[in-house]
Amino acid sequence: MRVTIEINGRTVTDEVEDRTLLVHFVRENAGLTATNIGCDTTSCGACTVLLDGESVKSCTVLAAQADGHKVTTLEGLSGPDGEQHPLQRSFREQHGLQCGFCTPGMIMASASLLAHNPKPTRDEVREGLEGNLCRCTGYHNIVSAVIEASGQEVDR
Amino acid sequence: MSIVGTRVVRVEDEKLITTGGTYIEDLREEALTGAVHAMFVRSPIAHARITSIDTSEALAAPGVVAVYTAEDIDLAPGAAGPVAEPWLADGVVRYVGQPVALVLTQERYQLADAAELVDVDYEPLDAVASIDAALSDETVIFPEHGSNLMQEHGHEFDDNAFADCEVVITETIVNQRVAPAPLEVRGAACVWGEDGRLTFWPSTQNPQMARTIIAAGLGVGEESVHVITPDVGGGFGAKIGADPDAVVIAWASRKAGRAVRWSETRSENMTAMTHGRAQQNTVTVGGRRDGTILAFRLDIVQDAGAYPRTLFLPTLTELMASGVYHFPKVEARSRGVVTNTTPISAYRGAGRPEATAAIERAMDLFAAEIGMDPAEVRKVNFIRPDEFPYQTPTGAVYDTGEYAQALDKVLENAGYTELRAEQARRRDSGDPVALGLGLATYVEITGGDGGGESGRVDIHADGSVTAYTGSSPHGQGLDTTLAMLLSDQLGVPMDRITVRHGDTDEVPKGVGTFGSRSLQLGGSAVRQAADEVIERAKQVAAELLEASTDDMELNAEAGMWQVRGAPSSRTVTWAQVAEKAGEGQLSADVWFDKGTPTFPFGAHLAVVEVDTLTGKVVLRRLVALDDAGPVVNPVTFTGQRHGGLGQGAAQALLEVMNYDADGNPTTATLADYSFITATELPDFELLDMATPTDRNLLGVKGIGEAATIGSTPAVHNAVVDALSHLGVKHIDMPTTPMRVWQALARVREAD
C-alpha cells in the first residue's frame, strides 16, 4: 500500500507492505536512523517518536496508521537553524546518556512529558518515563536532564 | 589549572543527541548495499534429539536465499572448552535458544515467515534445569563427559576449620541468573571483498578479540579479517569478543557470496545471549561473640549453562571470597556444572559481585546471631590501612584500601544512628511498613585479566593530536577521558584531540573493554605513548630554540616548548615542533605491559521500606562511596557509579531469568523480565574518596563495575534487615513482593 507521512516537516511517500511498522518506515523508507528498536514487546521505549505531537512507541504503530499524519523524531527536534532543543542540551550537560541507544526515545518521551507537565517534580519525571528503559545510567541523570530542560534548578 | 579532575561534558554526545549514533542496524555502508538478512532458527526445547530437519518449504518461501543447518557447516569445531559447542546444533539441542539453522532472505520481513517454515522434529530428552538437578547427575547432558560436573577448583575443606569458634553460621545463598540485556541486542553486518578479505561489523566490546575469534572459527589468518566496531548500545560484559553466532554469520556470508546483516530480536536475545551470575553459594562463618570472625568458608557452585564458556567466573569468586576482611582462616572452592539453560558468561562484575554478595550476607547473618550492629562487626574485621599490600588467603594481592574510613563516611553522611532510631520507633509502634538498613563494604578487582593495552599518539603538523586506543568503549565516555588526559599532559586543547578505536586495521593490537580495565590500562598506554612523543619533541624543540635538549621543557599549561628557567624567552608551539620534525615523526605506538590488577573499594548503605502486609519493597535511599583512586572526569565517573547502582539494585529487587522444571524460560521477553525502570530507583547519594594505587602510570583504579558490586548486597541486606524483628533471617534475591510475603508467611506459620 501507499503511505504518505510528514516526518520532521518533510513529506515521505512510499509503497510498503500492509504490516510495515512505523519504526521501520521511519528508519528504512525515510532513512532516519536515530529512532532505535530495542525489543519486540513494546516494553523498552527506544523507538518512541511523536505522532501529531503525542509520544508513541513506533514499533506498535503501523505505518498505515500514520498515513496522513505528522511524525517527529530526534532528528527533527533541533530548530531550523540547527539550534538544539533544551532537552538535547540538558541530556548532554547532565550526562543523561551513556551508550546512547535509549536516548532518542528517551528524549522524545521527555518532550511529550514536558508538553503535558512543564514543571514536573523528580518523582513525576520518573513516573512519566516509566515506559522507557535505560540500562546504563540508573536513570538519575536522565531525571536531572528533564528537570534542567524544564527550567528548574537541578539539585545534584 | 589542570583539566584532569574537572567536570567535562562528553565529546561523544554531539551526534548521539542529534542524529543518533551509528549502531549495527544503522550502517549504510556502500559495501552492504543489497545485503541479505539473516535469522537463526532456535531450539524451542531445552533438551532434545533432532530427528530430522526439513528445509524444503522454507527454501521455497518468498525471498529465501539460503537455509543452512549443521550438515552444511564445513568449519572445524569451535573453541575447545570441556565440551565442544557446535556452530549449529548437531543431533542434539541443549538449551532453548540454541541455534539450529540459519535463514537468509532478501528482505527483512521475509525472515520470520521463512524461519517458521524450517521443520525440525525434536524427540525430547529429560532436561536438567537447576544446579541441584545437575549435581545429582540423574540426567547427564554430555554422556561422553560422564558427569555434569565440568570443573572443580580451590581449597580442600578442613573439618576442624571452625573448631575454635563460639558461633558458626551456615546459609546457602542463591545468586540468581540475570540477563545482561543491553538495549541494543546482538547483531552484525559483514561482506567478503574480492581480495578474499572479510569486513565484519559486530556489536562488541573488543574488536581485536572478535577478529581473533572469527578468524579462528573460519580457519583463516587474522590478516584476512577486518573488524570495525560502530557505536555499541551497551555490553555489560556480555558482548566480550564474539559469540559463535557471529562466526556463523561470517561463514554464511562467504558461503552465500552475499553481504549479510544480522540483528537478533529481543526475545531471542533473552535466551540466546549469555546470562550472568547463576551461582549457588554456601557460606559458613564462625567466630567469637565479640564480633571477631575466625574462619570463613565459601562453597561455590556455578551453573555454567549448556556449554561452559567461562569457567573462570567461579574461580574469580574464590579469589575475592574474603572481601575487605582480615580473617585468619579462609577456604573457598568452586564447582562448575552444565544445565539445559542458556550459557553463562561475564556480566558487569563477573565473579566479584557473587563473592561480595556471599561475604556481605554472611557478615549480616553473623551480626544478627551475636546481636551486634552489622557496621560494628565489619569494623572489627576490616583489613587495616597499614596492612597493604595485603595478600588474601585465596591469593589476591590488594594494593591500597581505607575500608573503615569509607564505612565511617557513609554511616555519618547517611545519618545511620538516626535511621536506626527511626527503625526502632517504627518497630515499637507496630508500623506495618518496616524500615530496613543494609550495608555492604566491598573490594573489587579491576584490570584483573592482567593483560596490557595498546596506545598510540600522533602529533600532526598543525599541532592537532590523534590518539588510538586498543580499549573499545561502548558508553563509558573513554574518548572524553583520554582526551582530557592528553590535553593535560601535552597542553593541547580538547577540541584539537581526536581519540580513535574500534577498527582493527587502524588499531591492530588491543584487548578491549571489560573488567573495568580501560582507564587504568588504556589510559596508561596513551600516557606512555605521549611520554615518548614528548621525549622526541624535546630534541626537535631544542634544535628550533638552539638550546640543549636537557634544558627543554614543555609548558603544559600553555602548550608551548620553552627553555627551562627562562620562560620569558622564546617559545615554540607544538605545530612548529611537529612541522620541523616532519609528518609522522612525532608519533609513538606503545604497549603498556604493566597490567597489574588494582582493587577499588567502597561502602554502600541502602534504606528500604517493606510493606509487611503486601511484601512490596521500596528502595528509599542508596548512599554510596566508591573509591577508585584519582578521578579524571567526575561526569563519567559519576555516570558509571549511577549505572552500577541501578543495575546492582535491580538484581537485589527485581531481576531474574527464570526457567521451569523442563528448562523452558519463563522470562524470555522484556514484558516478563522485570527490567528495572525509573520508578523503582531513588536519586542516588554519592560520597567521594580517592585512594591512589601505585600499580599504573595514572594511580587510577577502574570504576565500571564497582557500584554494581556494592549495591546488590546493600539492598539485599536492607530487605532482610527490615524483616529481622519478625524473625526473617534470609530471603534469596530478587526480593520481590511474592518472595517477601512468602518469607513472612513461613515465619508466621512457624510461630
From TrEMBL, chain A:
Pfam families noted in UniProt: Fer2, Fer2_2
UniProt EC number: 1.2.7.4
InterPro entries cross-referenced by the UniProt entry: 2Fe-2S-bd, 2Fe-2S-bd_dom_sf, 2Fe-2S_ferredoxin-like_sf, 2Fe-2S_ferredoxin-type, Beta-grasp_dom_sf, Diverse_Oxidoreductases
Superkingdom of the source species: Bacteria
Signal peptide: none
Coiled coil: none
Pathway where this protein functions: Alkaloid degradation; nicotine degradation
SUPFAM superfamilies xrefs: 2Fe-2S ferredoxin-like, CO dehydrogenase ISP C-domain like
Annotated ranges, domain 2Fe-2S ferredoxin-type: 1-77
Keywords: 2Fe-2S, Iron, Iron-sulfur, Metal-binding, Oxidoreductase
Alphabetized GO MF terms: 2 iron, 2 sulfur cluster binding; anaerobic carbon-monoxide dehydrogenase activity; metal ion binding
Name recorded for this polypeptide: Carbon-monoxide dehydrogenase small subunit
Automatic annotation (TrEMBL), chain B:
Domain Aldehyde oxidase/xanthine dehydrogenase a/b hammerhead: 19-126
InterPro entries associated with the record: Ald_Oxase/Xan_DH_a/b (IPR000674), Ald_Oxase/Xan_DH_a/b_sf (IPR036856), Ald_Oxase/xanthine_DH-like (IPR016208), AldOxase/xan_DH_MoCoBD1 (IPR008274), AldOxase/xan_DH_MoCoBD2 (IPR046867), AldOxase/xan_DH_Mopterin-bd_sf (IPR037165)
Listed SUPFAM superfamilies: CO dehydrogenase molybdoprotein N-domain-like (SSF54665), Molybdenum cofactor-binding domain (SSF56003)
MF (Gene Ontology): iron ion binding; oxidoreductase activity
Pfam families (UniProt xref): Ald_Xan_dh_C, MoCoBD_1, MoCoBD_2
Keywords for the protein's UniProt record, in alphabetical order: Molybdenum, Oxidoreductase
Protein name: Carbon-monoxide dehydrogenase large subunit
